[in-house]
Amino acid sequence: MNNTPIPLGPKADKATVRRHNLSLVLRAVHDAGDATRAAVATRVGLTRAAVSSLVEQLLENGFLTEWGKTSSGQAGRPGTVLKVARTGPAGLGVEINVDYVAVCVVDLAGTDRVRLVEHVDNRGVSPSEVLGRAAQLAARALASAAEQDLTPVGAHVVVPGLVTGGTVRQAPNLGWTRVAVEGLFAQSLSALAPARRPLPVSSDNEANAAALAELWYGAGTEGVRSFLYLTGEIGIGGALVVGGELLRGAHGFAGEIGHMVVDPDGPLCPCGAHGCLEQYAGQAALLAAAGIETTAGVLGVAELQRRVRRADPDALAAVERAGRQLGCVVSGAVNLFDPDAVMLGGFYRALTRWLAPAVEHELALRVISGLWAKDSGRLRAASPLGDAARGAAGVIVQEVLADPAAFADRGDDD
Amino acid sequence: MNNTPIPLGPKADKATVRRHNLSLVLRAVHDAGDATRAAVATRVGLTRAAVSSLVEQLLENGFLTEWGKTSSGQAGRPGTVLKVARTGPAGLGVEINVDYVAVCVVDLAGTDRVRLVEHVDNRGVSPSEVLGRAAQLAARALASAAEQDLTPVGAHVVVPGLVTGGTVRQAPNLGWTRVAVEGLFAQSLSALAPARRPLPVSSDNEANAAALAELWYGAGTEGVRSFLYLTGEIGIGGALVVGGELLRGAHGFAGEIGHMVVDPDGPLCPCGAHGCLEQYAGQAALLAAAGIETTAGVLGVAELQRRVRRADPDALAAVERAGRQLGCVVSGAVNLFDPDAVMLGGFYRALTRWLAPAVEHELALRVISGLWAKDSGRLRAASPLGDAARGAAGVIVQEVLADPAAFADRGDDD
User: Fold this and answer.
1) Looking at chain B from residue 266 to 285, which residues have their Cβ under 8 Å from any Cβ of chain A?
2) Predicted pLDDT of residue B203
3) pLDDT tens digit string along B156-212?
4) How many CB atoms lie within 10 A of CB A341?
5) Do B160 and B206 form a contact (C-beta atoms < 8 A)?
């Protein structure tokens, strides 16, 4: 990684350098929110002349816009404030989950400009039907984006399961095995929203996207660069962020906290093993323990929240018990990874107030660094439901920020 | 990380660039084993003239040596083979464990040139006495190193516990709390082996050093860049290597797999929690389960090995049970972290043949990626006992390789 020599002589490919520096300048404006050319030059360590030339190109290609003058009031353009464009290139995120589908269009600044969620039971439905439904939602989102002069340059589809090389290897709670998710989605979408150039489609695990949304857009991760993200759904998704980057594992399958074991002789999990955490602290297990119809989905979670709010003893006991079991497993994960924080997402978010005491009890008792005492504030509620779609759209936006030149001619296409 | 601009103009500090390139050249020779100047130039992407000048400095300062001529037979120096020096700068590693102390001197090529191990029960002995004993062993190692013209430029002390900022925060199995390990060791050593310039002392967790030894010097990690390392001692140490680098966690406390929970209502652990893995698969627990005196240390492990070898039913049952419990916890760690391999170190190494079937059974059943089937070869025996000391010495060697200029004037000192 660090083995690249600092070039002593010339020989560095000028086009490559310029492309790299275009990204540096765009990112500098993006990260600052707004900035003058002079501030950008200071920040990235290039000359003002070089920055001006790069900014010109970014303005022409619609990645940046100019706003008014700064109060420091030097005449002419150098004092003009730059912002990333609110029109043009954008990202489309698509989240397939067990009981909903969500799509989101995010602009270059990271704002979610379109968001559509459809509650639907995807269990027992064929992958192509589910992905067809998701493509319909996506087509509606693309139409709304077009009305706002936004042009998504890629779609990122996320699924609660093991995803690699464009294929869902296994998504136990959807009942999917070896589903070519990218191809199926692209096919459905191009039939619904024909385009001169078909939208490139990529894919990943849903918890990864939710964790990235938390990292990029969440309020709870301010200053936190390493965290464990848990998302309570029908199953339990997990993702690890280390030093501001997703830890993907050697084969892209890291973060499967829902299949850590609570009791080797416990109930059978759809994954084939006994006693996985999902069987104790997943949505169905928790609703069942509280005496609520387990197929009620989001309505069931709302009902559970109502019951704990009015101190229903069965509901409180169920949440407390799930919290203890979750706490034991999360303590193990914290002992292994030593993160700064643990974020509770998905339906855990709505229950954090009641879950947290039991989880924190175990953390305080079991984490041997001693950094997880009850008042440590390291256990936090994460972003609201559906943000995996925003994180997925953000993945596309990050691709644009990393190499704007690669997307320079896409803006006016369709 | 990637936000450094590729410098368009000059302005890069020439001394810094040269220092960086000295390391590049030294590492290139180190990694290749031996190399001509021309091969080095190709590998690092610098001109042959630049490489020759850097090589000259590295030869003068004793980091490199020249050997014979290559068969390709161009006349003069360019065809001479370079190797890293087998004399001069070296690393001193010191491993404090519960029932032994080990020291190791490693040369720049990574060979362990001195190795001393003293079996001793450190439980209930004061930290200053233990560190004094380690310093005696280190002084003997330094004398042996001097006889071989090796000059350790730093000592790295590793301890089975949480180590940060030169202090052992907690080492439950040694009974240490808040021990200023670096200061105490440096003090003892300078009294025993006075030097014009005292040896700089650094410190870390013992399992981290053992994992690094496995990464740098182990045979089992050939081509493996991400692995979980487990070391069975009185306690159970753990470390995570991701993409060839130690994953330290946000506060340096990652890898504490010994305190992942098997049963929340299980036996009390010295850490204060109940049912930690150590209480099931640590040395004392395993010996007790097999009916062997738990304070027998290495002799106890040897006895256990003898008994499983002759198929003693109690011993086999104890190892099999520990393997299942270890397997459940390790499966959870693999689901979370998705490594390429799991390495069994410490006393597990001697028992791998009998432990592995049970551990592999759980891995095959519980790891949802499906990559850990019984014949996957991903569970492996690690390097022999004591290699944490070699890894610790290697940490110093890596510091020299990373910035030889910082150590250029140390060679002839004492």
Assistant:
1) 271-273, 276
2) 97
3) 999 999 999 999 998 988 999 999 999 999 999 999 988 888 899 999 999 999 999
4) 24
5) yes
Residues of B in contact with A52 (CB under 8 A): none
For residues A13 and A271, the model is more confident at A271
Cα-Cα-Cα-Cα dihedral sign, residues B78, B80, B83, B86: negative
For chain B, which residues score pLDDT lower than 50?
1-11, 73, 76, 411-414
Are A195 and A302 part of one and the same domain?
no
Q: Specify the amino acid at residue B328.
A: C
| Edge-to-edge strand ranges of the sheet holding B150-159 | B112-119, B100-107, B88-96, B150-159, B201-205
Nearest by CB to B368, which of A248, A256, A367? Answer: A256
CA atoms within 13 Å, Cβ hemisphere of B378: 26
Write down the ipTM of this complex: 0.88
- The CATH number of residue B116's host domain is 3.30.420.40
Is B80 found in the same domain as B123? no
Nearby residues of B15 by Cβ (< 8 Å), 6 or more positions away: none
Contact A335 B257 (CB under 8 A): yes
- B39 reaches A (C-beta below 8 A): no
pLDDT at position A220 over 80: no
Q: Cα separations (Å) of B72 from B28, B33, B64? A: 20, 18, 21
Question: How far out from the chain centre does Cα B69 lie?
Answer: 35
Q: Does A250 touch chain B (CB under 8 A)?
A: yes
**Interchain CB contact of A178 with B (< 8 Å):** no
Segments forming the whole domain that contains residue B369: 222-382
What residue has token string 């080797």? Answer: A264
Q: Based on the fold, state whether residues A246 and A355 are members of the same structural domain.
A: yes
Identify the closest residue of chain B to A277 by CA–CA distance: B332
Contact B12 A6 (CB under 8 A): yes
Tokens 């953000």 belong to which residue?
Answer: A394
Among B207, B209, B206, B220, which residue's Cα sits nearest to residue B382? Answer: B220
CATH no. for residue B61? 1.10.10.10
The runs of H, that is alpha helices, within B72-221 are: 127-147, 181-192, 206-217
Say how far apart CA B157 and CA B181 lie, in whole Å.
8
Helices marked H in A14-106 — which ranges?
A: 14-32, 37-44, 48-60
Q: Say yes or no: A15 contacts chain B, CB-CB below 8 A.
A: no
Q: State yes or no: pLDDT of A144 exceeds 90.
A: yes
Q: Which one of A366, A371, A401 makes the best mutation probe of the B interface by having the most chain B beta carbons within 10 Å?
A: A366
Q: Can you say whether the dihedral through the CA atoms of A178, A181, A182, A186 is positive or negative? A: positive
